[in-house]
Write a structure and sequence with these properties.
Blueprint: E1 8-19, E2 25-33, E3 42-43, E4 46-48, H1 55-67, E5 77-86, E6 91-101, E7 116-123, H2 125-128, H3 135-142
Parallel strand pairs: 1-6
Antiparallel strand pairs: 1-2, 1-4, 2-3, 2-7, 5-6
Length: 152
């Protein structure tokens, strides 16, 4: 296993949809990772921050590249940043969490099948707790001082 030499910056985005078929309940996208650190765990659409890229642009780009959904860049919001140390994989990330809402879910597709097992899933916050989560997402949910009302 190669040891990561520098801290990397990752961006994960909660893509939220209010389900009209379920009393407007908020759901967001997760997918099962494949072929990278955290393989077999479920995480948000996202990826690495490119040089000179702002957080919203990264979230916009990664969500489009992975899910085919085009977010409204003016509506992408910052939630928090977390220091994520992954001792098993010998990796260290600063993980930026963002969120945005979408009106339509009809265009969602797996755009990078080499990185995602199966299909994207729309889940509620309560449903999320039953999945084996990618460590940064698990650490996010363990934070006691975060306002998660945007997901409820």
């Amino acid at each position: 296993m190669t040891v990561q030499e520098h801290v990397r910056v990752g961006v994960g985005c909660f893509v939220i949809h209010q389900d009209p078929n379920d009393a407007g309940k908020k759901r967001f996208l997760i997918g099962q990772r494949k072929g990278s650190h955290g393989a077999n765990s479920y995480g948000l659409p996202g990826g690495h921050l490119d040089m000179f890229e702002d957080f919203a642009t990264c979230a916009f780009r990664e969500v489009l590249e992975e899910t085919n959904l085009k977010l409204d860049k003016s509506q992408i919001r910052f939630i928090t940043a977390l220091n994520t140390i992954m001792p098993t994989e010998q990796k260290h990330y600063v993980t930026i969490f963002m969120y945005s809402q979408v009106d339509s879910v009809k265009d969602v597709k797996v755009m990078e099948p080499e990185k995602l097992q199966g299909t994207w899933k729309w889940v509620t916050l309560d449903e999320l707790k039953s999945y084996h989560l990618f460590l940064p997402l698990q650490v996010f949910l363990e934070q006691k001082d975060l306002d998660l009302s945007f997901l409820e």
